[in-house]
Structure formats: C-alpha cells, structure tokens
Design goal:
By secondary structure, the chain is α/β, with parallel strands linked by helices. The protein is built from 13 helices and 6 strands.
Amino acid sequence: MSLEVGIQPAILSCCDGTARCKRSEIGMRRAAGDAMLSTMHNADRQAQNLARALRTAAEGDFDIDVAGLAGLAGYSSGHFQRLFRHHFGISPGRFLRHSRIDRFAQLLRSGHGVTHAAAEAGFGSSSRAHQAAQDGLGMKPSKLGSGAEGETIRFATAGCRLGRVLVAATAKGLCAVLLGESDEEIELELARRFPQADRRSGDSAFVETLDQVVKLIDRGRQPSEALPLDLRGTVFQRKVWAALQQIPAGETLTYGELARRVGLPGSARAVAQACGANPAAVVVPCHRVVAADGGLGGYRWGIEKKQALLERERMDV
C-alpha cells in the first residue's frame, strides 16, 4: 500500500513537470517567433532604407560614392557594405561602377562625345571611361556611340514557323536575331539598331548560320557548336543574357528566380526589362522566363510566339 501511495505522487509530480515543460516549450516558441518577427521587421526596414537610398541616388544618376550612398541609407560605410552585399549579392562599389558604365553607354548612344559622357557619368578621366567601357561593354566607346559606324554587319532572312526571322552578325559573332511578320519590318529594326553600319546581305557561308537558327526555332535543334555572339548591351543586361543561356530547353524560371541567379534578389522588374532588351531571340532564350503567378509574362516578339516556343520545347523533352 505504501508502495502504491509512493508511486502516485511520483506520477503526479511527473505530470506536473511535463506540464511545466510544455508551458516552457510554448514560451520558448513564442519567444523564438517574436525574435523571428523582429528579424523580419528589421530586414524589411533595412530593405526599405536601401531602396530609399538607391532611389535617391538614381535621381542624381548615381553620381555618388559608397560613403555617400551609405549616408543616404542611414548606416556607417562598413555596415552599409555588409547589408548591401547581403540583400543584393554584389558590393555597392561594384554596383556603382556598373551604374556609371550604363550611364556612360546611354550618353554615348544619345550622341554625346566621349569626354562629355565620361564627365557626366562620373568618371574621373576619359581614360578610365575607355577602360571601363572595354571591360564592361566589350567595345571601345567610339564604336558604341557611332551606331557601329565603319563596322560591317552581314544579315539574311528566312521563313520559320514563327513568321520571318533575320539573323545578323559582325566579324565576332551574332549581333541580332529578330522575329517579325515581314522582311521589311525586321530589316528596319536592324537599321535602327545599327544605323551607321555597313549592312550587307550574307554570302552562302552565312546562310548556313541562318539555317542553324531556323532549325533551332522550328525543331528546337541546338547547333553542333555554340554560335559565337557579339551582343551589345549594358553590364547588367549582358549578365542577364548570359544567365538565360544556362536555362535548359523544356525548363522555365520566374523573373524573380532569374534575379536571384544573377545575384540581385528583388530585382525581378529590372531582369524583365533586360529580357525585353534581348537582341537575339531564341538563341538567347528569354522565352524561358515566366511570371511568378504561373502566367507567361511578356515577350517582345509576341506572347503567342513565346507560348509556341515553350510548347515545342516541352514536347521534345
């Protein structure tokens, strides 16, 4: 009897202990949840501060240094650099350099001289601007601003299941693959892109390149060797176009996923704009990027063409 009496209090004590443990666990979970919410709010606040700083800097065409950008965000320079890299996957110094290169390119394309464009873009000298353009854009500033003056571009057109296609190339590689409903339409677009170039019809050897592109469009057949490319764009655009070429046929990414791949999470809109500026349809497969809600998103050559390309690729997988 005494044994039974001894066991009962022990069991009751154990139950009370379990209840206390459960209460303790609930308290811990609540504390952890509160800490997580605090972290999320803090992260949101940091993102808002960074976004505010970038918007303000953009109004001045990013004519600012890292310390100035940090001041706009309300952080010390060192803390700001860590936050910026954490949120965007790139250092603020590198981001500002790319912004200056992009600004420099825009000014040159608008007809400004190299010296003026270099000063307006925030480069200390024309020599620095020349080097930055060569490193970031893959061409000399004079060529970028001249509408390809003095450059020979060969092109040819053909029919494909999406309508008409124009393939154009410099001596370095393909510079344009354009889709349209008529040769006149796509030849005019080529002229707008390279107004000063010597545009010539391609010879029989070039027609083989055209045939490879048509087979890629019609049958999804990849060329036996990668086609060399000579695409003109900003640093950011070229980074996005390179990432597009890593998406396998039959697969898709959302614009947000692609933004994370290029190291700029939260920049889905900028990525979508870079996809829209893609000069090489299908060869650089921007049609493989879709909206986060499951929709197709946009496509500069027509949403029907995008759907047709995706359906064909799914059939071949």
